[in-house]
Amino acid sequence: MHGLPIDLPQMQPGWVWLVGSGPGDAALMTLAGYGALQQADHVIYDALVDQRILDMAGAHTVLEYAGKRGGRPSAKQVDISYRLVQLARENKRVLRLKGGDPFVFGRGGEEALSLVQAGIQFRIVPGISAGIGGLAYAGIPVTHRETNSAVTFVTGHGTTGEVPDGIDWHALAKSSPVIVAYMAMKHLHQITTRLLEGGRRPDEPVAVICQASTSSQQVLETTVARAHADVQESGLQPPAVVVFGEVVRLRAGLDWLGAMAGRVLEGDPLGTRSKWETG
Predict the structure, then answer these.
(1) d(Cα 250, Cα 51) in Å, to the nearest integer?
(2) Active-site residue 46, yes or no?
(3) Catalytic pick from 46, 50, 101, 255?
(4) What helix, strand, coil percent values describe the chain, rounded to 5?
């Protein structure tokens, strides 16, 4: 396809592919996802999918919006799943296009199980999740050997629309050196309060990354104690991912987008040069 040196997987009529479009930048779409867009008869896409990705679809492809955004009129999950089954039974090649990765807080598992129950063949095409790709575009690694050997990904927005009750925030505050929270801006005050109650340091660095990896990306660096007030003052709006932990300090040396715009980077923001040079 278009002279690529590899054979991309072929879509078959009656199949549904659940494809992750990545964190925002259209260039981060996978080759398998691009191939699916070229082949699909019908695409059902989410709100956070970049228009430039939709523009990759074949000339014959039907694009159908099924976006879901918190606090706004949105398609119901059961209706989306039913639509996928309906189109597959019409022998269409169906692409369900989702932001990030379908299986990382993307409800792709629910949709796939609906397809299983209906006897529909499906394929999963992973995408770069915002909790990894979005942080990379902000110059923040999710792991670094001088700061953390573990990272926890959580959602700040449960099925009820509130902070998830199933997360032990106090235990998380004590056990996880780096926490990456999706869909957390609405409940940031409650989340930071629970983390502080669990023993998180008030001055621990926090970064809020909005419109991650797009030309509209904005990054706010703050602390656990100041995060809610600073976000309110800044006027930043979702979608956003929030990261808690010492890895945020590395942005001073790894903000590669900032460097392209003229920012002078720090060579050793953690003050650990002597450790790794002699280790």
Answers:
(1) 32
(2) yes
(3) 46
(4) 35, 20, 50
Q: Are residues 158 and 266 in the same domain?
A: yes
List 11, 92, 98, 183, catalytic entry: 183
Structurally, the chain folds into a number of domains equal to 2
Domain residue limits at 198: 131-278
DSSP 152: E
100, 135: one domain? no
Indicate the pLDDT class of residue 167, thresholds 50, 70 and 90. Answer: very high
- Round to whole Å and give the CA distance between 224 and 195: 8
Report residue 278's pLDDT band, with 50, 70 and 90 as the boundaries: very low
- Provide the percentage of residues in the chain whose pLDDT is more than 90: 86
Task: Assess whether 207 and 266 both reside in one domain.
Answer: yes
The whole-model pTM stands at 0.92
Kindly state whether residue 5 falls inside one of the protein's structural domains: no
Is 68 considered catalytic here? yes
Residue among 41, 56, 68, 186 flagged as catalytic: 68
Is 260 known to be catalytic? no
Residues 74 and 77: their CA atoms lie apart, in Å, by: 9
